[in-house]
Every structure is written in C-alpha cells, then in structure tokens.
Design goal:
Strand order of the largest sheet: 2-10-11-12
Number of strands: 17
CATH class of the largest domain: Alpha Beta
Distance between the termini: 67 Å
Structural class: alpha/beta
Radius of gyration: 25 Å
Strand content: 5-15%
C-alpha cells in the first residue's frame, strides 16, 4: 500500500484551544455577544481546517460540541442565537467522520519525520522519554467515557515499517515500558496482512510494552494470537463489553487480565464532562507521546473545563528546547506537580526549571486539598504543607541515621565515599546537610514561608494575562472561594492576615487558599504583592524544598 503523505494543516490564526476557552469564559459570564462571536470564530476555524482537521483540532471541536450541549439553553437562546451555527458544526463533524473513515491511510516513517521536523538530538530525547505511542488515529470504539476523547472511526495507521522503526528507536533509547495505545485501541492497528501480533512477536522479551484494549470485534483473533505468544496485555472492561469478554474467555479458555472491571469508571471523562466541576487527573505520567499526527509533551492536570482529557498536550516542534524527564508509575506519583519539572535538553544532562509551567499553575489554582482530586499515592498541596508541621520535623530528626544510611546506599552501594568523584562527594554532602537543615525549626518555618511565596508568585504572574482562563478557574472554584471569604474576609481586613501564612496553625491551609482564591477574584492583591516582595523564593532541587531567592533579595 502506498504511504500517504500527511498534509500540514494550517489552522486559524488564533489557536482553537484559545477560542474554546474564550467561548467557555463568555458562557460563564453569560455574555451573549462574546459567546456568539467566539463560537462563530470556532466554526470559521473548523471550516478552514477542512477536509483534514487533524486529530488535535477535531478533539477540541468535539469538546466544544459537548460544552454547547451542557449549556444549550443559554447558547441557543434568542440573545445568543447559535442554533443554526451549532447545527453546522454538528454536520461538519459528521461529514469528517464519513470522509475520513472511508479512506483510511497509512503514515510512513519518512512522512512522520518530515511532519515533526526535529533534529537528531530532539528525536533521541523524544524516543527516550516517550510514555505513549499511539499506533492509530481514531478508534473503532466510541466510548462515552473515553479518557482521551478518541475520535470515532479509524482514520489512519502508522505503516508497518513506520511502527517497526518507531519501536526500534524506542529500544535503541532503552525505553522498553512505553504504552502502545492512547486515543485509539492497539488492536485496531494493521497494515495489509500485518497485525499487532506480527509487529510485536519478533521482539520476544526485549520489551515490556503496555497494551490496554477494549477488544474490537475485528480484533479477537489478534488478541488470541497475542495471548498464545505470551505478549502481556490487559482488557479494559465496562458494561458495554463485559458480556462479550466473558463469552470470549469461555470460548477460548483464555483468562484475560482486566482493568476498570466495575460498573462505572472511577473518573468521568469524555462526554460525561460537565464543564462545571473539577475532577481527579486521568493521566499519571510525565513524558512524550508519539502519534500519526506528530509528537507531544504530556503533563498531567486535573480533569476540568480547561483540560477535559486530564492532561495537557504540548506540541513538540523544532523550537522545543527541553523535554520532561520520563516518569511513570510510582515515579510519577511521587512527583509533586507543584514543583518545577526535571527536564533534559541538547546537552543531555537533566536539570530543573526555575519556574512552574502555566499548566502547573492552573492545577495549583484548582487544588483545594480534597483527597477526591488526588489519585491514590499522589500528594496534593494540603498534604505537602504537613511536612512543615512540628511533628514532621521531629520525626525527620529522629530518622537522621536511617536517612544517612539510605544516602550511602544511593551514592556508593558497593564502594566507599572516597571512590566517588569530587562532584558526587559534593552532592552527597549537600544531601546530608539539606536533611540536617530541614530538622532545624527556624529553617523549617522559613522553608514553609518560601513555599507559600513561590506559589503565590506563580499564581500572580499567571493570572496577570490570562483573562479567559481566569474566568474559567473562577467559575470552577467559586464555592470554595465564597466559603473562605465568608470565614476569613473580615479578619483579613481588620488585621494583616498575612501573618497566618508564616505560622503553623490548624487553619494554615485555609488561609493559604483564601489568598490564592482571592487573587483569582482580584482581592487582596496588594497584600499578596507585599508578602511576595518581602520573601522572594526559589526552588532548590538538591534540598528538594523552597528557599530564599538570594538573587531577588534587595
């Protein structure tokens, strides 16, 4: 089959995600004129992207379509008047499905390389930090609760040679635990007579790629082949396919590993998104994603109107200077989203960013400390602040000997201190000093204050030029903000409530959230600015805590 050269899609001059947020903000403000204007710009952008809108573009359009349905009384009211334009969008998306699914094409490795347009060092880091390879665009399932908002119907596949070359590059970079799925079902992949079993069998035990499938009706034979060849996979079970999976097990005698085997998925997504609440993150990994459409950096987020997929996809381009260091499983869960990311660039030496990404700040603004928002094993901000409590400090002091023993095992498990390089010796000493410092009561209090200052500074900088996102976040946190204002506003006005951010009290986190939410609603901005200016802060990756920013101090 002749490979199809994917077109480079030139979208509307205003990014579609920006228009989506503009539209939602107008709905939340009940601004009829701006809602109408934003939607017409969205429709215009969608029409300009035809006949190949691309996977990312179409996902955003489907999120907008779902948002309209959630707020239909307002959107279709006479003052907004979007009934006909909304029907035009529905027709456009239906036509895209029909046309794209009639002509499924295959993407060659050369065409994909041309599309991403990366230099060798960027390509190496893309493969080294890949957490997902999506072999197919579109999905034979159209699950209502799809985490990835997968497009209905199969649109394209990587060619067999492209898929084999991608897997080869993963192995060259010693990346053997990538997930071979995403906004698609891995068993949908094929190229002529080649199936997923043909693609993976030659590797044997060289890789432990993750496979999660709903088992498409046309993929049952492929699944049986994979199982018989001892290629590990899991089946995602919901009400829609539970009986079919059970019947398959009875007919074949195969016992399948299952996930999500409950009446409902734990995390609403896809068409269940209501655009008015904040839910737990769906994604629990940091790294990159490879798809037939291109390449992306993946950062976990809460699932909400800003990011209905529970993560942010940042396009990888020839301008990408750094890639997040891959973290999956327990490593990812232990990564505090509110600390600067560990990244790697052209020098291939990991380092930490000095500031938070915008997406991290958005999550920080939405983090009310509820355990319902934090996946099991992941720490939220409220839990993080408990490390500054007196009981935690005394516990660290008590554990000093075991901490030092752990550092010895980490730095020289089979040798001696003198066998380390000078740089390693210095880092070892710094780690010990950092622990001892964090057992000092004065330094613990100082570090807590620095953390507060760092977070408030990040929030203030972000909100300065994000009008629409600010409106959306305000809508999502309004109940919490109102509760905190009713409880603390009077005290904050009579006295300088800032001192509550510098002391360990039972209401410390409430006071912190009081000022964070106040920034979103343009309250107490001068007080917050004074607090930040008096306590400039930075992140110290060696000590893994926030410290005084000496460079910013007068």
């Amino acid at each position: 089959m002749k490979p199809f050269r994917m077109p480079y899609v030139k979208f509307h001059e205003i990014p579609l995600e920006t228009l989506k947020n503009r539209f939602l903000a107008a709905i939340y403000r009940q601004d009829a004129q701006k809602a109408r204007t934003a939607f017409l710009m969205i429709l215009n952008a969608a029409q300009q992207s035809l006949p190949e809108p691309g996977e990312t573009c179409e996902k955003l359009l489907r999120q907008i379509q779902t948002a309209v349905l959630r707020f239909k009384p307002f959107v279709t009211s006479p003052q907004v008047g979007l009934t006909a334009p909304f029907q035009a969008l529905n027709t456009l998306l239906a036509d895209v499905v029909k046309s794209r699914c009639r002509a499924v094409y295959h993407v060659s490795y050369t065409d994909w390389q041309t599309r991403v347009n990366l230099v060798p060092w960027q390509m190496d880091l893309l493969f080294k930090n890949a957490i997902t390879v999506q072999l197919t665009s579109g999905c034979s399932h159209f699950c209502r609760r799809c985490n990835e908002w997968a497009l209905p119907g199969i649109r394209s596949h990587f060619s067999h040679d492209a898929a084999a070359q991608i897997i080869k590059q993963l192995l060259v970079q010693r990346n053997t635990d990538t997930a071979l799925y995403g906004a698609s079902d891995p068993l949908d992949w094929q190229d002529g007579a080649h199936t997923l079993a043909d693609l993976l069998t030659p590797m044997g035990s060289a890789a432990c790629f993750s496979l999660l499938t709903k088992v498409p009706r046309a993929g049952q034979k492929v699944l049986q082949t994979l199982v018989h060849r001892n290629i590990a996979l899991s089946v995602s079970v919901t009400d829609a396919n539970r009986n079919r999976i059970k019947a398959l097990e009875r007919q074949t005698g195969i016992k399948l590993a299952k996930q999500h085997d409950s009446d409902d998925l734990l995390i609403p997504a896809g068409l269940d998104e209501d655009f008015t609440t904040v839910k737990s993150s769906i994604t629990d990994a940091y790294g990159t994603e490879i798809t037939p459409e291109g390449a992306f950096i993946i950062i976990p987020t809460f699932t909400c109107a800003l990011h209905p997929m529970g993560h942010k996809k940042l396009p990888v381009t020839d301008k990408t200077a750094v890639f997040p260091v891959k973290k999956i499983g327990r490593q990812a869960l232990l990564k505090d989203y509110f600390k600067p990311l560990e990244v790697v660039g052209q020098e291939n030496t990991p380092f930490y960013l000095s500031k938070l990404l915008d997406i991290q700040v958005e999550t920080l603004l939405l983090d009310n400390g509820s355990m319902d928002l934090s996946p099991p094993g992941m720490r939220n901000l409220k839990e993080y602040f408990t490390i500054f409590q007196e009981s935690a400090r005394l516990q660290r002091k008590h554990m000093t000997r075991s901490i030092v023993q752990g550092l010895k095992k980490q730095f020289f498990p089979h040798g001696r201190y003198h066998d380390l390089t000078q740089e390693q010796q210095q880092l070892y000493r710094q780690k010990i000093c950092a622990h001892l410092d964090f057992c000092n009561k004065t330094i613990v209090e100082q570090s807590r204050t620095c953390a507060v200052s760092f977070f408030l500074q990040a929030a203030q900088n972000f909100l300065a030029d994000q009008e629409n996102k600010k409106t959306i976040i305000a809508h999502l946190i309004k109940p919490e903000a109102d509760r905190l204002a009713n409880r603390y506003e009077q005290t904050a006005r009579k006295t300088d409530g800032q001192h509550m951010l510098s002391h360990d009290t039972d209401t410390f986190f409430d006071w912190f959230r009081f000022y964070v939410t106040a920034l979103v609603f343009d309250r107490h901005t001068e007080a917050v600015t004074r607090f930040i200016q008096a306590r400039p802060a930075a992140y110290d990756p060696v000590a893994d805590r926030f410290v005084k920013d000496k460079e910013s101090m007068p």
